[in-house]
Amino acid sequence: MDVSYLLDGLNDKQRDAVAAPPQHMLVLAGAGSGKTRVLVHRLAWLMQVERVAPYSLLAVTFTNKASQEMRGRIESTIGVSLNNLWMGTFHGLSHRMLRAHYQEANLPQSFQIIDSDDQHRLVKRVLKALNLDEKHWPAKQIQWFINARKDEGQRPGMIDAGADFSLQQMVKIYAAYQDMCDRAGLVDFAEILLRSFELLKTHDAVRNHYQQRFRHILVDEFQDTNAIQYNWLRLLAGSSAKVMIVGDDDQSIYGWRGAKVENIQQFLKDFAGADTIRLEQNYRSTATILKAANAVISNNSGRLGKDLWTDGSEGETISSYNAFNELDEARFIVSRIRDWHNKGNPLTESAILYRNNAQSRVLEEALIQEGLHYRIYGGLRFYERQEIKDALAYLRLLNNRQDDAAMERVINTPARGIGETTMNKVRQQARASQQTLWQALEQMLAEKQLSGRAANAIEQFMQLITQLDTDLNELPLHEQAEQVIKQSGLYAMYQAEKGEKAQTRIENLNELVTACQNFDSVLQEEMTPLAAFLSQAALEAGEYQAEEHSDAVQLMTLHSAKGLEFPLVFMCGLEEGMFPSQQSGDDPTRLEEERRLCYVGMTRAMQKLYLCHAQSRRLYGQEQYPKPSRFLREIPDDCVEEIRLTTQVSRPAQLNRYSHAASHSAFENTGFKLGQRVLHEKFGEGTVLNYEGSGPQSRIQVNFDQLGSKWLMTAYARLEAV
Ligand SMILES: Nc1ncnc2c1ncn2[C@@H]1O[C@H](COP(=O)(O)OP(=O)(O)OP(=O)(O)O)[C@@H](O)[C@H]1O
Ligand SMILES: [Mg+2]
């Protein structure tokens, strides 16, 4: 059989890796050198040449999206259906295992995954139950503690708190939280991994089954595995599976979440005889972008060391834009995307990357104003929206009455007159008798412990859920969803709200029905379609793309950009305190992680890279005047040019490229510059902050010394420069 096509489009080193005999392998290489491509070809090679059945392969990807893409690519290359191939994220795969062996894992069949919001709510309940003051025990911190322990594989009983009172308390809270989850059949994200690890560890039969099944295990983005994931891999691999990992120590960006880049060296120790293959040619970026990225990362110490070169063209210079404020930054970016789009380039090929999710709002607004479609990638968007979570909570209750997190969310949404006082009583009862809310309510109603309006309302609510469950059971998933949204009263509630926001909510609810319609649950024969959908929704949260195929600008955090590539990339907010972030402070370890994040961001760009920073930024309601990021200074001068807008204001030549200088941005069509002082006949003096629109429709925003900020129609404002 001619299998040469499996080696097409690969260089010699890549071929060595793809066509190696079955063995352990580490592919260690910089960004854009084809690691992921090698992994995909290797999978195909194993199936076609080594005749390994898809059933015997396990592949771990960084996102669910990546695994779908890979699956599609391999299926179309080798023309074999991969239904039997286990491919997904650590979480996805572990979850699948828990579903298949829920009894051994000590879980109810209908167990439900909860997100960090649900977790937050549950932690708060635990604090109340333990009579602890949230001021001293902030729920967020506790969540962090619990998740970190789980990532290390530690159960409450395994933590030795010694005489440390505060740690003792934390452990107590952790234990109580876990009890509550177990009773309600709820599983948080960290729990998915830990449970599945424990399942393999303690159940010989299960472990043996998978060890015999998986002949080859392949892992992408290995540098970001944490302790529990690594141990999970080792257990699965046992002594006979061959493991191939691909990664880049310079792109390890999840240290703050417990990822250990040291796992790369550990791998070489644990998997004896592993071959290390280094790829050095970059196929993604222009020489200029690569040179700049290499220069930045060279400031880090303790790297495993890699050379990365390209024989591609030098390409365009990197542009750096010094914005007046975050609005100016957003407008600049959007105007450049508009130009790029006008030249016939698809929007999907452009990406805006930022350090914090909160930065997206201003960018979103600028895009909307310009009428450009955009999509937020990986940021827990669609499924995080209030109305979607409401609807899902109802569906979750149909699936599992004991789901306390869902119960808390919708028992009084829409409002049914079930107040906090009543709920507190119920919670207390549930606590006292170790019941879930649903169980407690059943008992309280039976014993007539609740009375009057609230009792009626609760009874009706519970009837509604039971009724929906029986009525809808046999319907296709999307009809179930549609009926639940309508009969629960959610639809009517949001319709009554009126206004644009409510309209969007309704659209989102409709979109949820569409999502159910498109949902394909074939791969999950262990579950009902509803259970499968709920799990998928919880797992994929932000990755879900409402309009997968429409042309849209891609917005995402730097973290979620890992592994992706775009012809046009904007990195924004390159300011001290923003990126590197405030929290990294002067801690060298964290600073280096920020620098790796910068390296990840820059190496996403294929043709053109823009780096933006603002002289003033309003974030979380506060105005700041940050210094340009140190990362900007680490880029060689000949790789960057500074952009000057259509302005008359020239900058003193001796000023450093990134020093603080007065803004030189100007309004093309109002005659005023951002930051300029102006006088209004009624409002007095002020500073120009922003503008929008053009021609007679244009509006200008001025921060008046006496009155604060106001929007004015430029044509009527009769502002004078002062
Ligand atoms: N031998 C090759 N010839 C031409 N193009 C290649 C070759 N190898 C990889 N590429 C292309 O280079 C780009 C980068 O490849 P890939 O995404 O696999 O790199 P990577 O090492 O996984 O990057 P990252 O570290 O960012 O995950 C992709 O567009 C890929 O198709
Ligand atoms: Mg990759």
TrEMBL record:
Its EC number is 5.6.2.4. ATP binds at residues 29-36. Keywords: ATP-binding, DNA-binding, Helicase, Hydrolase, Isomerase, Nucleotide-binding. Residues 287-563 form the UvrD-like helicase C-terminal domain. It is an enzyme of class 5 (isomerase). One of its GO terms (molecular function) is hydrolase activity. It catalyses: ATP + H2O = ADP + phosphate + H(+); Couples ATP hydrolysis with the unwinding of duplex DNA by translocating in the 3'-5' direction. It comes from the Bacteria. Belongs to the helicase family. UvrD subfamily. This is DNA 3'-5' helicase. It comes from Alishewanella maricola. The lineage of its organism: Bacteria, Pseudomonadati, Pseudomonadota, Gammaproteobacteria, Alteromonadales.
